[in-house]
Amino acid sequence: KFSDFLNQVYNECQKKFLAFLKEELEKALIEFRDQEIIGTPRYHRGNIRKRWGFRIRKVIETPIGFLENVRIPRVRNAYQEICLFTDRYVKRFDLLKEAMLEMYISGMSTRRISALSRKLFSTGLSASCISHLKDFVEEQLKKMRQSKIESDIRILVVDGVYGRFRLSKRKGVCLVAIGVDFSGKAHLLDWLGCESESRANWRKLFRRLKQRGLWQVELLVSDDARGAVGAYQDVWTNSSAHQLCLWHFQRELYQKLHDRSWRKRMQFHKQYWEIFAPDEKEECNRRAEHFIRTWEDEKDMIDCFHRNWSKLTVYLDYPEQWRYRIRTVNLAENFFSHFQTFLKRFPGWLDKSHIE
Known about the structure:
Distance between the termini: 50 Å
Strand content: 15-25%
Number of helices: 13
Number of domains: 3
Oligomer: single chain
Mean pLDDT: 79
Number of strands: 8
Strand order of the largest sheet: 6-5-4-7-8
Radius of gyration: 28 Å
Largest sheet: 5 strands, mixed
């Protein structure tokens, strides 16, 4: 079979590549030791106060197999050993850690992860390793949430996802803030676990962002949550631009319809999204007027549409290539997509810190 032939070639290449990787790794370690620690080029005399040798690392796990008996340089001065790296006892690549952790978070048991990782990476996973991976991720998340925010963040997209507390009927919510920079790229900035989407909770989250360097925000993208809008104006006092999520606003208008038959629902959905299909505000205004004339019998819905019209087309003031990112809160919704699937089988949060 061709698959058998591929496996045979892969096994041969794997052995050669592992040998090459080990050789290049040891060369790079020696070069790093000479330049950064000892301070003299290779084969040069000097710095006789330092002594050096090697420590043998029995196994280092990589995505393609094991590196065995790797020589790690060691350097010692007159008093103690000098560490080349702060993470001295690393045994596997970060790529392996991330892959295994994603499998664990998705609900796979440690036994299944161990069996699958042996097939894919030729390495297993113990229960203690899961604990170390959890600590590793918590450390990375803590660094990310404390790092300085780049000044090119212009737009803030916010939303929240609800769950429940364990052994209780009370609900909790995870508030999330995503920033959009000059190029239209999205950045997860921070999140907050709390009991409601109140103004005070949103203000707490926004103040943390401001303390990390987000001094000014041009536009807030959210659903019609008054707490988020009020906190936005409290923290960034000179900011007033607000883009309503078109998808959430569609649902709000739909709830005000008196006739919700299948035909009316389809007609409403089609005509609503036709308003925002053009790239020019003038054409959007023209289609909005046609929409109002068509649905003038639905007075409650049309009144709501009139009141919020100025907040629905703010996204058209921004570059065309990334308008689709800021006319809805899909950036935040996508962040929650896997989280919501997990919450369906999750027994509940213990407290607000457990949400985070």
